Fold this sequence. Notes:
alpha+beta; eight-stranded mixed β-sheet; six-stranded mixed β-sheet; 19 helices; 22 strands; elongated; binds adenosine-5'-diphosphate
Amino acid sequence: MGKRKFKAESKRLLELMINSIYSQREVFLRELISNSSDAIDKIYYKALTDDNLTFNQSDYYIKLEADKESRTLKIVDTGIGMTQEELEKNLGTIAKSGSFSFKSENEIKDGHDIIGQFGVGFYAAFMVADVVTVVSKALGSDEAFKWESKGTDGYTIEPAEKDTVGTEITLKLKDNSEDENYDEYLEEYRLKEIIKKYSDFIRYPIKMEVTKSKKEDDSDEYVEYKEEEIINSMVPIWKKNKSELTDEDYENFYQEKRYGFDKPLKHIHLSVDGTIRYNAILFIPENRPFDYYSQDYQKGLELYSNGVLIMEKCADLIPDHFSFVKGLVDSEDLSLNISREMLQHDRQLKLIEKNINKKIKQQLLSLQRDDRESYEKFFQAFGRQLKFGVYNEFGVNKDTLKDLLLFYSSKEKKLVTLAEYVSRMPEDQKYIYYATGESIDRIDKLPQTELVADKGYEILYFTEEIDEFAIRVLMNYEEKEFKSVSSHDLGIDSEEEKASEQETEENKELFGYMKDKLSGKVKEVRVSKRLKSHPVCLTADGEISIEMEKVISAMPDNQQVKAEKVLEINPNHEVFQTLKDAFENDKEKLDLYTNILFNQALLIEGLPVEDPVEFTNNMCKVMVAQ
Ligand code: ADP
């Protein structure tokens, strides 16, 4: 029989395969094994409807045979086989469904990614072989045929001998080159490794003869012998029934998959039978990976198509705010074939992501409700990511995430949810109060919290940089607005409030003088309504808080955003009288006191003193003056 030519687009794809510097050549095996598995499926489905055919599980398998001498690798299957016409049609053309064709060089370059993720099927064989021979006998036929090709110049088909139904593909491996060692595909360990990685959950056994050794009787010597072994584990844990599985099974799987060195805090096993069908196993890790909050960390779930791994880290499957989740998704509805439009995959992945997002949230909420200790552990590890999630993308995910947040409470002395806070609010309390600072200890001592705490209101402590930014995006919770204890209007109608306004008015000149002395460092000096025992504090008017100013100015592209600082003086503190006296009698002293009080307020806020030498000199002056 004469030589036949490949269809044009097949030829282009073939060129790509032959010349590719494609980094994951090993996927050729995944592609061929998937084809074999599909071919066995076809017999299986036929047997379901054809009474003359019985499907005896043990008759169906895939087998690898490597021969180092001839440098050939054979993939044998007992699937449905191909007739002469099918060999011609299936292996002479690609893109039978027609939607896939290379139009430009660019698309060929893009093709590299596509092969890695979704594969190009049979043609991948040419990534490692320069001669590919397919001998096949179709079910119901008594003749076999041999298809053979050495690459782009075409292929031949001729009658062949084969006793049993099925297909046998022989790859004559390419010569080793400087960059590439093709011999590795003849090594047992390497073949095992590739099968474990990509095809572990193929439903049918993948057999291979492996070398073993044993001790001879009456001798200390080991002898080697060959034995056929099934390499794949066949039934994936995610296709098993949840009720058959124990926590330990999931833990072992987590370890086996090397999702982390820790134990999972929680697993989520999904079997979804909706618009798009899929199984998933997801894990919430116990510990934060060391690189979690760094650029190096890559989120993603493993993506399988019917038991075959098509992508190791599919980022599209998991939203950023849950980027700590490990696991996999397996869907029959995602075809391994690129001849389906990629766009369609995108839409399917989006649907799965949406669903997964919902499930993770549900599980976290139930953990929060039923096992608070574990939830707190989780939150210590990944809470910051949830807060970033609230803040990012202008808050599109804030409603998903707000109930997952925890903050330290001044009253409960532990982490509480916003719902818990609001449920405890006394009737006259209008706002959810918070205070920012470096640590719980420091906030405990913040003078600004005095009035609110005195009123008996609970205060949430914000100790992380992101906290206040996230809360600004959140704006309110159950219609209760958030309010910093440092904000000008605390929303507390009190005697202090009225008195302070009056006193500020009465001492207008003193405060005006002090403000001028601080030359632009504060927007105003006024009498405080929030201080009970401390002499001074700093607060901020306007949108930017002092804490936010600190965060923003520490950012690499240091934007000059400043809080509108206000120096507040406690009218009930003796210092106030001292200031008033100095204003009347000794302006030089007042200058000194103003500088000292302002610097003290900076220190309490955790802000640097601008001129520490001047500050300490001023302190000494006061001491000497006594
Ligand atoms: P795909 O599998 O994505 O359709 P391939 O290029 O891998 O594309 O294979 C083309 C066709 O060749 C398959 O659809 C199938 O009909 C047939 N085929 C490939 N390998 C086998 C096999 N081992 N046994 C039976 N048919 C096969």
